[in-house]
Amino acid sequence: MKWAKENKGILTASELALSASIPIEEARSNLDAMVNKGFAELRVRQSGALVYAIPDLMNSDEPLVD
After folding, report:
1. Measured at the alpha carbon of residue 25, what is the angle toward residues 40 and 4, in degrees to the nearest 5?
2. Model confidence over 19-32: pLDDT tens digits?
3. What distance in Å separates the CA atoms of residue 13 and residue 61, rounded to the nearest whole number?
4. Whole-angstrom Cα distance, residue 21 to residue 31?
5. What value, to the nearest 5°, has the Cα angle with vertex 25 and ends 59 and 10?
6. What architecture does CATH give domain 2-57?
7. What residue ranges do the domains of the chain occupy?
8. Cα Rg of the chain, angstroms
């Protein structure tokens, strides 16, 4: 998750696999599990690439809503 934090909450399965030295299938499975549990969101870049967004790690300077 350190890589996701450094990328403002955005992570790909390839990035996770590379940074954690795990197979890409395992990285994708872990990220999909986070989506299923509500900790991440699956998004599509304009290029068509799938990315995982982790809202808790995105823009922590954003003001809170009452």
Report:
1. 35
2. 899 999 999 999 99
3. 26
4. 15
5. 10
6. Orthogonal Bundle (1.10)
7. 2-57
8. 12
Residues of the chain with pLDDT under 70: 1, 3, 60-66
Q: What Å distances lie between residue 43 and 9, 11, 19, 22, CA to CA?
A: 12, 10, 20, 22
Which structure tokens are listed for 57? 């790690």
Q: Residue 10 corresponds to which tokens in the numbers above?
A: 């955005």
Q: Where are the beta strands (DSSP E) in the chain?
A: 10-11, 41-44, 50-53
Q: How many residues does the chain have?
A: 66
